[in-house]
Amino acid sequence: MNIGIISIFPEMFNAITKFGITKKAIKNKLLKFYCWNPRKFTNSKNFNIDDRPYGGGPGMLMKMEPLQNAINYGKKILSGNKKIIYLTPQGKKLNFNKLKKLINIKNIILVCGRYEGIDERLIISEIDEEISIGDYILSGGELAAMILIDSITRFIPGVLQHKLSSVEDSFENGLLDYPSYTRPRVINKIHVPNILLNGNHKKIYYWRLKQSLGRTWIKRPDLLKKIKLTNIQKNLLNEFKNEYFISYKEK
């Protein structure tokens, strides 16, 4: 997979290219990473990439010319199917299903806006999709791009050490993840559940599924409304609810 970034602050991306799974993916040649600074694609003597908006108003807008030149350069470098994405609060929210679709695209170019945004004509002419990471404002698109890159890298085959790591993550089956524990068995008088210690993988599987259903019911009930539960899942969720209410009454 190839990911290109258009940003006036390319150094910010050292935070992911030099650490963690993204670094591993690049090192193992599972991911190729490019970064193009639009300042290098402007005809301005002062390398200006912004100007005042027509009609007045606060702030500055990123100009179309340097951004478009950078995008066209990226298109020449990256051969094959590609998608140009602009990170903006006005876009569709990034979620699990969106990531699964993006992983099938060989080349992705992420445009990181700054200031008050970018010239609307660039969106009309060059942008294939607008994506948001939430209903709030950031100083620029770089942090949003890093979140998208880190998230999508997990789906690249061979990146994660365990092949089931991404499969068992939260949201893979529409549910939140189950609680996990490691050594020692007791910390601050809190014990690891006995069922995880008996080696019965069938019982462990159903316990984890029940906890996953229960956590989703408590923390994200909206997700349950989108899932058609099997009879087994319904029974497990009912068990969790009964145990939850009994525990609540005891408190």
Descriptive keywords:
alpha/beta, five-stranded parallel beta sheet, Trp Operon Repressor, Chain A, single chain, Alpha/beta knot, 9 strands, 251 residues, elongated
CATH architecture of the largest domain: 3-Layer(aba) Sandwich
Specify the overall morphology.
Answer: elongated
Which structural class is indicated by helix and strand composition?
Answer: alpha/beta
Helix content: 25-40%
What's the gyration radius in Å? 23 Å
**Name of the CATH first level of the largest domain:** Alpha Beta
Please, what is the CATH homologous superfamily of the largest domain? SPOUT methyltransferase, trefoil knot domain
CATH topology of the largest domain: Alpha/beta knot
Number of structurally distinct domains: 2
